[in-house]
Amino acid sequence: MRIIIWIIANAFLFSVVSTQRNRRPVFTCGGNFTGDTGLIGSQGYPGVYPPNNKCVWRITVPQGKVVSLLFRALDLESDSLCRYDYVDVYDGHINGQRLGRFCGTARPGALVTNGNKMQVVMVSDANTAGSGFLAVYSAIRPNERGDRYCGGLLDKPSGSIKTPNWPDKDYPAGVTCSWHIVAPQDQIIELKFEKFDVERDSYCRYDHVAVFNGEETNESRKIGKFCGDSPPMPIYSDGNHLFIMFLSDLSLTADGFIGHYRFKSRSLSTASAPLTPVSTIPPTTQPAVITATLISAAVRDRSILATFSIMHLYKEGSLAIQQAGKTMSTKITVLCKKCPLVRRGEYLYTDLVLQTFRP
Ligand SMILES: [Ca+2]
Ligand SMILES: [Ca+2]
């Protein structure tokens, strides 16, 4: 009798193991996933994903933990801005910050949320497809160490922060990186950017680096917001925490940045160098160089006030650039003793000198 039960039990166990071994997970278009760990994949993975599709995966791990997502495989139509097919990973389920947008075959490092929820969205267009993606999610402790796509907790006495792909390629579109630097109680943090090239905009509305005193983004404790191609002045924290956030939108990227931080004793620290608020224009001593098309001009006694649509911005200098979508324009006052007649046409403007030019 015992032997029979033993045989039945073992036969049952064997059948469970063998079905698990033979059964391939079936990947559907999105779904809700809970628990400490699990596998998600594009619809029909490793088969070619369907065209004109959108799938949403919502992952929830136990309270107090955060979600870490690691791609095991990635094969989506390739494009430098991932405009056609892509996987977006969000921090949270609704209105979350996008942690990154991915396509092609280069797998990013682990993507980590701030809370216990993550949303993954995959979109495909009509043409060209691949085998999609396979990713493992797991619940980890907040600030757990590990190889991350970007960002994370930094508590060593010195270290570096850099944009994804640095220095090989431009930073990707649609990414958010957050670094939290923590020094011992009695120390402060010095941050210096060695190289810096982030999509330029007078108000840094598109891509930017924002630096905050404290452990999180907090407008009232913002030290500065930076973009363009000149590195910000060295930054010093008030206390022992510094929070740095890098964000890129879904168009135009640039080289990115690398910065180095170190802890400094509070007593040796000098006052922070004054930072130029982003809404003010750089010092007037900076020359401006643009080629532009004249839209309108008002000739006055000893000056011309001209409005230009910018063809190419070489150096912004002290110009006030207006941006509407991809169209940039500026108003320039040119001082002149005997003002020439300006006509519609193309001009080269270099630091108070206006010349007609033919491309
Ligand atoms: Ca496609
Ligand atoms: Ca951009």
Looking at the structure, the CATH topology of the largest domain is Jelly Rolls
Average pLDDT, all residues: 86
Number-wise, the strands total 24
CATH architecture classification of the largest domain: Sandwich
Are any ligands bound, and if so which? calcium ion
Number of domains: 2
Poorly predicted runs: 4-20, 269-285
The CATH superfamily of the largest domain turns out to be: Spermadhesin, CUB domain
Q: Span from first to last CA?
A: 97 Å
Strand arrangement within the widest β-sheet reads 21-22-20-19-23-24
- H/E series, N to C? HEEEEEEEEEEEEEEEEEEEEEEEE
The number of helical segments is 1
How much strand content do the residues show? Answer: 35-45%
Shape category: flat
Provide a concise account of the structure shown.
The protein is mainly beta. It has 1 helix and 24 strands.
Keywords:
mainly beta, Jelly Rolls, OB fold (Dihydrolipoamide Acetyltransferase, E2P), six-stranded antiparallel beta sheet, 24 strands, flat, TIMP-like_OB-fold, disulfide bond
